[in-house]
Write a sequence for this structure.
């Protein structure tokens, strides 16, 4: 996120947010993006959406529900050549490390 805010790619990609209240008083959030750069932006966007969902649910006195993120066009974006299995494993390892750090905070 610290890098995302200073280097935008094109215009805004987030098109629509929809909050829905479930019968069990859980607040669900669906986000629609016109395009998504999955390596450079998606993880930061998902963390931001999760924080937004948590904030709105907390302020409204509701339980947390699901977060759904839809992209009209999704791209793997940091390599000029095709992605291989090793690249995906590295990306997943980075995600899991970030999740552990977030869970510990």
């Amino acid at each position: 996120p610290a890098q995302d805010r200073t280097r935008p790619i094109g215009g805004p990609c987030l098109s629509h947010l929809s909050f829905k209240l479930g019968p069990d008083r859980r607040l669900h959030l669906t986000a629609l993006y016109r395009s998504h750069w999955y390596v450079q932006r998606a993880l930061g966007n998902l963390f931001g959406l999760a924080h937004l969902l948590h904030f709105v649910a907390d302020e409204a006195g509701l339980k947390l529900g699901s977060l759904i993120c839809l992209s009209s066009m999704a791209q793997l974006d940091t390599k000029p050549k095709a992605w291989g299995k090793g690249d995906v494993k590295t990306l997943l390892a980075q995600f899991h490390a970030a999740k552990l750090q977030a869970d510990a905070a």
Q: What stands out?
A: Residues 85-104 form the longest helix (20 residues). The chain has one domain: 4-80.
